[in-house]
Structure formats: C-alpha cells, structure tokens
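For consistency, the fold was encoded as tokens, which produced the following:
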Amino acid sequence: MIADEIQSGLARSGKMLACDWEGVRPDVVILGKALGGGVIPVSAVLADKDVMLCIRPGEHGSITLFMSKLTALLLMFVISTFGGNPLASAVAIASLDVIQEEKLAERSAHLGEELLCQLVKIKEEFPNYVKEVRGRGLFTAVEFNSKSLFPVSAYDICLKMKERGVLAKPTHDTIVRLTPPLCMSRDEVKEGSKVLHDVLELDLPNMQKAKPKDSPTTATICDRCGRNLYDPSDRAL
C-alpha cells in the first residue's frame, strides 16, 4: 500500500499523516510540500528498509538515505537533477523538528474543529448555496450547489475572497478548498470564515446578476474529471 501524503501529510489533517485517522500503516509514504517548510521544494519517500532497499543506487535516479527521527523509518530522496541536495535535506529535517516541537498536528486538529464549526454555521445560513462542508484538521472544503451558484463558479468565489484578503483554491468549479497555515490563530480562523460569509451574503447576488449566463467559464462538463457540473435544463435558475 502506497499513501500519497504530499498534500494531506505532516500535520495538515490534524494528525502527522492523514492515514493515521484510519489506523493503517502503509508500506510506502510519499511526502512533499510542507516538508520544505516554505523554504525550498523537496519531496521524499518513506518505507521500511525491506521495501526501500529493493531500490538500489543507480536504479532510480540518485538516492540519499537517512533515518527519520520522526517515524524511525528509512527516508529516501529519489530524484535526479537535484539528488542529494544538502540544503533540501537540512530543510526537510528542520521542518520535521518544527512540526514536532511546536505540536502542529495537535494545533491543526484544534483549529480545524473551530474552522469546521464556522463553516457549518455558514452552511446553515446559506443552505441554498452550500451543499456540504467537510474536512479534517486544517484541510477543509466547501462544496456549493451548482444550480444555485450558476453562473458563478468556485473560481469566482475565490477571486472575491482574495479581494477581501483570504486566499483559497477552487476545485472542479463547485468546491472551494481551505487550507490555512498551521500557525494561524483562532481569531484568524474566525476572520477568514467571515470573509467567505461576506462573499456569499454581499458579493454573490451581484456576481450572479452581472455574469452572463452563457459565460464560457461555466462549462457543463469538468475538463478534468468529466463530471456534469450543471444541468442545462436548470440554467435559468
């Protein structure tokens, strides 16, 4: 079993690895993003030596091996051009130390509960727009009702949130993903949630009136997964 923890790992979900929520121990774990601590791009593969040593030096790019203090697993960087980069390795170790010393997994879990609570309140206030809120730790998402949102998309919502000072990422035209910094405060969680609330209350009605119904940004089929995003018979809504 291989667990892709590039986005969800390293305290993002409220545990060190997202698969910890399920109580499973993968044979291989892939890490990235947060491993670089925002300083340098770096990724890594973790596994027990029985698995890792099946790949010998020279068979898959260049390899750097060291024992991870975090998991007691053998940590291997499998890359080519930047293989064995000493700066990247030092940054990765420092990032793991910070996550442990500052208890960022626990912090993510506590702040995630507050964020999800705020998002649930938004869903209750705007039930026609918000279809579902979900998440673990500070890895959350708001899914909108495509028919009620039309012709506005999640991308448009994110642009308005940006204007109000909060960065979020759209997914599949109907989902806004919220992955705030693990070091943020409880007050900042509430402030960020209020931005989404204000966009739905103050900006969205005007956006729906101003945006053409036949706008090319409101395609009915997602160009990535092929999912039907809008029912053409209900476009007037």
About this structure: The beta strands are 2-4, 28-31, 44-47, 62-67, 74-79, 130-136, 139-144, 169-171, 175-178. The chain has two domains: 2-101, 105-234.
